Amino acid sequence: MLPLRDNVPTRRAPVVTIALIAANFAVWFWELHxxxxxxxxxxxxPCSVEGPCLGPAAQHHLPALEGAFTAMFMHGSWLHILGNMxxxxxxxxxxxxALGRLRFLLWYLAAGLAATATQTWVTLHYAxxxxxxxxxxxxxxxxxxxxxxxxxxxxTARVLTLVGIFILPLxxxxxxxxxxxxxxxxxxFAVTHPAQGGGVAFFAHIGGFLFGxxxxxxxxxxxxxxxxx
Length: 229
Hints:
Helix content is 58%, strand content 7%. The protein is built from nine helices and three strands; from the N terminus they run E-H-H-H-H-H-H-H-E-E-H-H. It has a three-stranded antiparallel beta sheet with strand order 1-2-3. Helix 4 packs across helix 5 (101-126), helix 4 (78-99) crosses helix 7 (140-153) and helix 5 (101-126) packs antiparallel against helix 9. It starts with a strand and ends in a 10-residue tail after the last helix.
């Protein structure tokens, strides 16, 4: 399922959401022209928390906290960044509207850190140093926080969704519920098999989503608009 747009307006332009999308694309275009090895340095490595790191690519990484921030704006392919930015565009504007611009930006970054911390804990405790030395990049953990927040704020909003060859208006709780269930399924429902997702940090998605759902009402300044149409 691929969300295309929702039917919930905002009070004002989602400046921060647009800026985050622009920043991610700016970093992506830098990645496309960066020298070999440069990207490895700015990725995040779980082994930077508890090493040693294995392999040449992981030897010259940034400190853990710095790498967690820089990796949050990096992506591995066109499909990776386009998918992430589509989700951020569809769901981020209404969450920003509820939190306010500055609060949304800080909360978004915190969601990304929470997602990274979740994946790091699982990797270090269950996958070993070899897996911990694999670079992690992508905005999906932070965006998962946005999805968790949206689910609580607007569960009955209609999301125009591409399902196979059909475009259907589906309730947000169904679209996001299926998305979250897929993260659990792809992660094999077991923290003892964190590497089964083919390189995708599914536990970062899970951690980010739960962070967003758990904290959105603590930071929201106002409810989102509910004038669907």
